[in-house]
Amino acid sequence: xxxxxxxxxxxxxxxxxxxxxxxxxxxxxxxxxxxxxxxxxxxxxxxxxxxxxxxxxxxxxxx
Length: 63
Prior knowledge:
Keywords: Ribonucleoprotein, Ribosome biogenesis, rRNA processing. InterPro entries: H/ACA_rnp_Nop10 (IPR007264), H/ACA_rnp_Nop10_sf (IPR036756), Nop10_arc-typ (IPR023532). This is Ribosome biogenesis protein Nop10. With 63 residues, the protein is α+β, with helices and mostly antiparallel strands. The protein has a domain of 37 residues. It contains 2 helices and 3 strands. The longest helix is centred in the last third of the chain and has 13 residues. The radius of gyration is 19 Å and the shape is elongated.
């Protein structure tokens, strides 16, 4: 899933705070922008199986 909101890739060096944009370039400094959202999960997550099993156990417990 791709996010439309992008952030300046050089904001740490050139700006006081993140600069967000919808374009491929930063409106303030002209640097390239990158996707601002982190990946939703890591497909190589070594503990994913255990987290999902715990989540299933908690969902099955009576309240």
